Amino acid sequence: MQKSIYLPLVAGFALCASGTVAQTPVLQVMTYDSFVSDWGPGPAIEAAFEETCGCDLQFIGTGDGAALLARLQLEGPRTEADIVLGLDTNLIAAARATGLFAPHGVTADLDLPITWDDPEFLPFDWGYFAFVGNAGAEAPTSLRALADSDIRIVIQDPRSSTPGLGLLMWVKTAYPDSAADLWADLADNIVTVTPGWSEAYGLFLEGEADAVLSYTTSPAYHLIAEEDDSKRAWAFDEGHYMQVEVAAKVAGTDQPELADQFLAFMVSDAFQSIIPTTNWMYPAVIPEAGLPAGFETLITPDLALLLSPEDAAAIRDTALDEWRNALSQ
Amino acid sequence: MAQRAVAIAPRWPGAAAAALVLVLTIGTLAAVGWRAEWQRGLSPADWAAIRFTVTQALVSAGLSVLLAIPVARALARRRFRGRSLLITLMGAPFLLPVVVAVIGLLAVFGRAGVVNSALAWLGLPAISIFGFHGVVLAHVFFNLPLAIRLILQGWLAIPAEKFRLAASLNAPVGRLLEWPMLRRVVPGVFLVIFLICLTSFAVALTLGGGPRATTVELAIYQALRFDFDLGRAALLACVQFGLCVVAAAIVWRLSLVDTMGTGLDRVVQRWDLRWPVLDYLMIGLVALFLFTPLCMVVWRGLPGLALLPADIWAAAGRSVIVAACSALLCLCMALALALRGGRVMEVVGVLPLAASGLVVGTGAFLLVYPFINPARLALPITVLVNATLALPFALRAIGQAVDEVARDYSRLGASLGLSRWGWVRIVVLPRIRRPLGFGAGLAAALSMGDLGVITLFAGEAQQTLPLAMYRLMGAYRMEAAAGAALLLLALSFVAFWICDRGGRGNADL
């Protein structure tokens, strides 16, 4: 009994301890959850930036990219975040509409398959969505072929996850006029629709499906971290929709110089060389040492599909309705 | 609800607990609605979500309760080796975080699972767990044990003296004792499970198969996360409350006042038992259904234990502290409300079940944000919200016991001139140890596995074990995540076991 009375006190002290602020200036970067985890880029990037900035870099992790935006909208202009890192192009329009962001002012040679000239949102990594299946199994060569096959896939719900939303955009850009038909044909291939990427990928690894919606870079994780070359991303003729992950400076930041310094650091070699084997995405700028060994085995689509933030926002509701109607039959 | 002849317990703690619950449920909803720009009403898709949600919740709750009655009956009247352990273990599925339970169910009913392997071996076609039946299966897996425990408590609350009297008269026990008890207990149990299934999110989404299996909670999620349409989120949360109110109103009409009378807590000696085989068959089947997936979680998780990163232990420690604080707080609130008694207690005790975790989290964020950086409050808020969300379960276990003590002993207490605190300490607490321990165990374990509020508030340094598990999955480390799931299962279960054991003492259950 006595013990339990102590516990709130212990919790309270632990919080106070973590809340004490050192004299060094603090730069707060709000990002998604997996970025700050031990296995994500967060810890290495924190160490690398703090070597040069004379500051304390703090990450605030919040769910996924969509949760990140919602958190920012909740906090509004009074947010303590100086940098927001981890939105993607499908979320940029809504993020821009908050009016919370300032121009980044960085000019860097980005190694993206598309040109990038957004004044506020600066990419730090990118990847192609792809279906990932097992080596040796039947591999369709297009969304259409997948829809016509008996292959069983798991996808994510576009109403609760960013990859799910990405697939919606993929189908809509590849089949602008017949997206609804494609979804109708895909319906019998879909084992289930999960709330997020983790659940879907888990189901695939458990053998519940032949393939899962993920990234062309997913096999790199298995190859490099697990020395397992049994996973393959399927190359599709229609092209692959891209996810470009971006960061931006919060206009009301109390550390504008540090924030600018961080954005410049973000496209530097030190930051970019950490990305491939921690976030398992392509770096926005290819590091001097090149991509890690193993990345050369990945498929590289001939055609990169991407809607502008405004177009993506404009067609989202239509695409969502088509998806829902086709899969509810 | 029983009207007390004299005020026998202090009333302010109950009022304080009720106020806290109201702030965290209605208050957070109001905070979300206050910030909203109201745009439009419910879409046809929202109505479809409401229909699906209600249908699956009705079926899931109905099946859970129907299956629980014979099992609870068998457990109430049979004595066998390992019975006590079995009853404790039965708490486990309910305490599992959703994603862990889904892993276990898939290992049994999935494409490469035990059942389909057996079917393939027999040359029979495979079954699929995905779809409406998958949702119901998972909900029954989760809630059947809870239903069994709650109904079993009803059985054990029938005084042994009544059975002896019935025996001496050779009267039908079923009609005289068991049926009235069931009529009193079952509607409440049904309501609790119905509401749990009503607010289900991840189960329905993972096993539902697609957009047909959309729940109201998902619509709230979408409104908050992707559309940032606070008005629609608040509206949908109101719909959820509305469904709860309707369900509760129906249940209250069905509920009856207890007429069992007072006993001296003797162990029941049953004389009317034939057909023991049937009872044991029921118990065996239910144990098989509940424990095979759990065993699979353990089996899958064992290799992952070696892969766990060092900071998982800090996360586990944080989870244990949160669970302990939350169980203590939940228990105090439940006791305060139960002693206060009456309709207020009943309403307040059901409200958290109808609340959307996401709306509660968002609303709490909005309430806290003007005053302090929410990240600093991540753990205290998690404790507070978890305690509130677990309150209905604790209250369901404790409330009835307290009412019975009050009805049976309040005159005695008054005639002895006990002070209000003395009454609670000397008469009430010793007599409600069993439900008290059960309630605390549930609260601790539920809090341990919770992944709702923390994700909205957490900063870098505050990850809990479920959050760490999700982060492992997000970093492709599925095997390590399975290890974390096993750790979580073990901790939840131990927390439940300690509280439950402590509450039982030497009572025979």
Task: Explain what you see.
The complex is a heterodimer of chains A (329) and B (509). Chain A has 329 residues and is of the alpha/beta class. Chain A has two domains: 2-126 and 244-295, D-Maltodextrin-Binding Protein, domain 2; 127-242 and 300-328, 3-Layer(aba) Sandwich (D-Maltodextrin-Binding Protein, domain 2), CATH 3.40.190.10. Chain A has 13 helices and twelve strands. In chain A, strands 1, 2, 3, 4, 5, 6, 7, 8, 9, 10, 11 and 12 form a twelve-stranded mixed β-sheet that branches. The longest helix of chain A is centred in the last third of the chain and has 20 residues, at 309-328. Chain A is globular. Residues 1-22 of chain A have low confidence and may be disordered. Chain B has 509 residues and is an all-alpha fold. Chain B has two domains: 8-39 and 306-508, MetI-like fold, CATH 1.10.3720.10; 42-301, Orthogonal Bundle (MetI-like fold). Chain B has 22 helices and no strands. Chain B has helices at 12-35, 44-77, 83-89, 92-95, 98-109, 114-121, 132-156, 160-169, 173-198, 202-207, 216-225, 230-254, 276-305, 312-340, 342-354, 357-368, 378-416, 420-431, 433-449, 453-457, 465-474, 478-504. Chain B is globular and about 65 Å long. The two termini of chain B are 27 Å apart. Classes of the chains: A alpha/beta (329), B mainly alpha (509). At the A-B interface, helix 1, helix 2, strand 2, helix 4 and strand 7 of A face helix 5, helix 10, helix 11, helix 14 and helix 16 of B.
